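FORM 7B: Structural annotation worksheet

SECTION A. Query
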Amino acid sequence: MSAAPFLDIQGLTVNFGGLTAVNDLSFQVQPGTIHALIGPNGAGKSTTFNCISRYYQPSSGRILLEGQEIGHLPASRMAGLGVARTFQNLELFGELSVFENVLLGCHAHSTRTLSAFLSRPNSETQDLVDSLLERVGLLHERETLACELDFGHQKLLEIARALAIKPRLLLLDEPAAGLRNRDIEGLNRLLTQLSRDDGITVLLVEHVMQLVMSISDHITVMSFGQKIAEGTPEQIGKDSRVIEAYLGKGVELE
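SECTION B. Predicted structure
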């Protein structure tokens, strides 16, 4: 008997005026797995993410987290439910240091005011931030302003800040964008550890197929707002509908 889904998307539809960005989308994410949501630009992937993280309100459909309907909740409630995300367009505080950006994530579980928390973090919190920075390979940039990092390292900083929330569900929107090959290999190891060792459920939108095919347990493919295929990386890599819609005829997924 299979485990109950950690995240269950049922008939999700999102309309913007006369445009249907997501059309009757359904898929399930199993606990402790890495699940990729892929498709060409404009397929509706980020819109789906924005609905799950409650930045957008669906026109219809249901979003269940461990069986609890969350489609009516505000975005401010997501951290408390253990949901963290990164963004396709970076949402960092450029004038703050690398350390301070991750520290902001830790505040999600504090009752202190933000100013007091940032100015006087306790030793336990400081150790947590440093451990997260070390985990993403940015400990040596601890005092660097976020705006001074290159784009790839800013993406890693966003992941560290998301991990500071201590998520059970981690939503990653194009985490490999801007990363060099060696950084992609590091991201591969990090996400695998988060899933296998820490038990974090990961849902990612990604165009770097090298990463998607190597770490994903399951893949859902979208095109023009609809699901066109889903399965294991091996199944998706051989699906002619996916190859044609995502990469064009005559190209193979690897």
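SECTION C. Observations
The chain has two domains: 1-82+170-175+203-254, 85-166. The longest strand covers residues 19-29.

SECTION D. Sign-off
Analyst initials: ____
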